[in-house]
């Protein structure tokens, strides 16, 4: 006998609905009525957020690698999409020739600044900001031959709102001038980095995967707090998993004890952040495993922010996920600086650069709104 109700048998349908209505336990449902649902940030939603938010108030973003082909294409794309006002550093003719080689007609209102012409005016500001480190005019002149340093001075002086570099420079080349000139923001003890990992159905945040080799417990706690705040700024509700090789009290040892201490510090400094650890990656990311290994955790199986115990683990994990699962990563985004400076992977695509420029613009918007 079929247990299906024919589509035209409304009487039996009403009986089924009435039965369910009479017998269902409504108490658990009533507890959640009126409570906001925690939505997952999907990759399309994240991309839309970056572009639409950046468009609200286009910021001036300096690109020190101005003659690099991908950077030129990204600057033109940002102009067309009204994401940001890009400033290209480099020789004008070299930049125009590189654009022509890609069949790009560079918009005439995209600003091009020739470092050879303007570098001299930044010598004294660099001497002043680095005088306690023995900076002299001659040394400053040599330092300013590096476009990244020159762009960083432009940011320091408020001529631009953010800086994006790294398409042909190492992370150290991008971060060093920022640490020397921009320096850490008030209340920040360190600079860290975060990657936005665009998984198939959700955006996750990984940190620190680029800056701090061996953070101690206090530094690891600061990285977790910075990253939770960054996640929230970009529309991702932070559930922070402090990653280790064991979950809860199942393991011991110097490394896992460090993660346990860092977790306690986050809870004491910022009780508003949902954090748990130490926690294995599978317990943090897979709901069935999380329920088994940490059944009472508000984070297990639902983590959106993953804090790795050291750079070796973080960098290896992000690259393994990126390459093995063909996942797009946006970043590294630097956290803890007075003004936004962001790095690129040297394998970055034009699209990667565009999204990093948008991300930098959003950071700059927040900074401008708070001053």
Automatic annotation (TrEMBL):
Q: Which pathway is this protein engaged in?
A: Metabolic intermediate biosynthesis; acetyl-CoA biosynthesis; acetyl-CoA from acetate: step 2/2
Protein name (record): Phosphate acetyltransferase
What is this enzyme's class at the first EC digit? transferase
Q: Which domain of life is it from?
A: Eukaryota
Task: Describe the family membership recorded for this protein in Swiss-Prot or TrEMBL.
Answer: Belongs to the phosphate acetyltransferase and butyryltransferase family.
Q: Which Pfam families match?
A: PTA_PTB (PF01515)
- What SUPFAM superfamilies is this protein classified in? Isocitrate/Isopropylmalate dehydrogenase-like
Q: EC number(s) per UniProt?
A: 2.3.1.8
Keywords in alphabetical order, please: Acyltransferase, Transferase
Identify the residues that the record assigns to the Phosphate acetyl/butaryl transferase domain, covering every copy. 48-361
InterPro entries in the cross-refs: P_Ac_Bu_trans (IPR012147), P_AcTrfase (IPR004614), P_AcTrfase_dom1 (IPR042113), P_AcTrfase_dom2 (IPR042112), Phos_Acetyltrans/Butyryltrans (IPR050500), PTA_PTB (IPR002505)
One MF annotation (Gene Ontology) recorded for this entry: phosphate acetyltransferase activity
Q: From the UniProt record, list the reaction(s) this protein catalyses.
A: acetyl-CoA + phosphate = acetyl phosphate + CoA
Supply the source organism for this entry: Darwinula stevensoni
């Amino acid at each position: 006998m079929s247990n299906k109700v024919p589509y035209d048998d409304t009487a039996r349908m009403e009986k089924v609905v009435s039965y369910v209505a009479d017998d269902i336990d409504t108490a658990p449902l009533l507890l959640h009525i009126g409570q906001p649902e925690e939505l997952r940030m999907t990759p399309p939603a994240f991309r839309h957020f970056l572009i639409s938010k950046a468009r609200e108030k286009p910021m001036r973003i300096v690109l020190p690698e101005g003659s690099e082909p991908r950077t030129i294409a990204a600057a033109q794309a940002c102009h067309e999409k009204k994401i940001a006002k890009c400033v290209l550093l480099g020789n004008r003719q070299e930049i125009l020739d590189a654009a022509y080689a890609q069949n790009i007609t560079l918009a005439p209102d995209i600003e091009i600044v020739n470092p050879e012409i303007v570098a001299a005016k930044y010598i004294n500001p660099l001497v002043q900001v680095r005088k306690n480190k023995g900076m002299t005019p001659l040394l400053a002149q040599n330092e300013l031959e590096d476009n990244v340093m020159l762009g960083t001075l432009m940011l320091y002086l408020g001529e631009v709102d953010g800086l994006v570099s790294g398409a042909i420079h190492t992370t150290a080349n991008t971060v060093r001038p920022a640490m020397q000139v921009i320096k850490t923001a008030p209340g920040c003890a360190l600079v860290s980095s975060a990657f936005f990992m665009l998984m198939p159905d959700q955006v996750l945040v990984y940190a620190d995967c680029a800056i701090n080799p061996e953070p101690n417990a206090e530094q690891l706690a600061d990285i977790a707090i910075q990253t939770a705040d960054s996640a929230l700024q970009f529309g991702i509700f932070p559930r922070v998993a402090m990653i280790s090789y064991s979950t809860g009290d199942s393991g011991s040892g110097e490394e896992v004890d460090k993660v346990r201490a860092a977790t306690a510090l986050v809870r004491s400094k910022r009780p508003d952040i949902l954090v748990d650890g130490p926690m294995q990656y599978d317990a943090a990311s897979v709901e069935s495993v999380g329920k088994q290994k940490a059944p009472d955790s508000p984070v297990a199986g639902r983590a959106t922010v993953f804090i790795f115990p050291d750079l070796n683990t973080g960098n290896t994990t992000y690259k393994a996920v990126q390459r093995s699962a063909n996942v797009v990563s946006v970043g590294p985004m630097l956290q803890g600086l007075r003004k936004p400076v962001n790095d690129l992977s040297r394998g970055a695509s034009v699209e990667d650069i565009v999204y990093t420029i948008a991300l930098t613009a959003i950071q700059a918007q927040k900074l401008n709104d708070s001053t």
